[in-house]
Amino acid sequence: MTQDLVAATGFGTIPVHAQQMVATLMMMMLRSVLQRWRVLILTLLVCSGRSGALVAAESRVADALSLAADFRYRAESVDLSGAAEDALASTLRSRLTLTGKPATGWSWVVEVDDVRVIGAERYNSTGNGQTHYPIVADPEGTDLNRAALAWHHTDVSLRAGRQRIVHGSERFVGGVAWRQNEQTYDGLRGQWQLSETASLDMSYVGAVRRIFGPDDGAQPASWDGDSLFLRAVWQPTDDIELRPFAYRLDVNADADFGPALTVDNSTDTVGIEADWSVGPLTLRGAYARQWEHGDSTLDYAANYSLAQGIYRFGAVQVEIAREVLGSDSNTGFRTPLATLHKFQGWADVFLTTPADGIEDTSLAFQGSVEDLTWRVVGHRFEADRGDAGYGHEFDLDVSWQMNERLSFQFRFAVFDADSAAARQYRDVRKAWFIARLALP
């Protein structure tokens, strides 16, 4: 069986001991998904059975239907200063995606995710009660990740149901796909290509299916409400791109959770992002203004800004950036729908903006060597209001795309808190090993 897997994934040319290690990992992934989803898989196999009278009809269905599987194993360790024990989360996310195209212009998708602990449960998932460990927000469970119907015609597309909504860099609206349980949205989305240089993206969202699901834990698994997202892209010239946006996030009250975890995340945010490219240099800027909305108990108006320079030479890219999430009335600018792991350091120290805001000054280098990609980032964190320093961080990532089906990733982050900020933030070391198999 393992030899068949070696051949199927195309890594028969690497050393034998590496083949055995990878094949064993793949067998573990496949065994887990077969055990958890045997009923669904058997149903799909039965439905795909042939009969002489249905060969032509089956051929048409086969052309319209597509089944894909994706397995992601991750080991995440957390060494948090002052914690009773270090955390080690060994989890496997198994995903089945069924898509169809029943008619011209129409398509649908149904996607199910299953997250399971492999080995001992030595981490706080926010829902397993293991609070003596640091948090790794990957709770176990089986979840309907997507279920949506889409229609596309010329320059217009509409999508209804549970779906991904990802805007740009994901600073304001993202999928948080870094975590094992992805963030998806229940709603209606329309996208229009207005011209060759302009497009419009509008969404109504009735519920945000958060990474803490499928069941409530220390955090709500979902936020219900009536949220609106509006984003446009306009290229007045070949070298300039402007992206104005407006987000109204409305979160309903929940009797099981206080305002800080529900209604206080209701916000109105308006702003603009801009890129200007000059040869190998790209200058990127952004500004936004935010205030409370709906039933929020807060009363504030805070600013956001970004200034970034990106320079490419050969296979190497250098980035210098200063990102500021401001503060007003002891409340920091917030982006609760962002893929927060991408910003302000991979140690995830600042998932909630400090009351005095935060300034993140960073220097990054990234590049590639054949099938390997790497990225190194240094951060310096300070308060936006006042002169307090929060700390500094070093991040490292190395990824290997062995072939189109199999990839590996190692990531490391270390955050050192300033002595003056020690009461608010603690030193933390995090490391990740990830193996991912996509089929077919």
Automatic annotation (TrEMBL):
Q: Name all Alginate export domain ranges.
A: 65-313
Q: Could you read off the lineage of the organism from its UniProt record?
A: Bacteria, Pseudomonadati, Pseudomonadota, Gammaproteobacteria, Cellvibrionales
- Output this protein's name: Alginate export protein
Give the transmembrane ranges.
none
| Superkingdom of this protein's organism | Bacteria
Annotated Gene3D superfamilies: Porin
Q: Where does this protein come from, organism-wise?
A: Chromatocurvus halotolerans
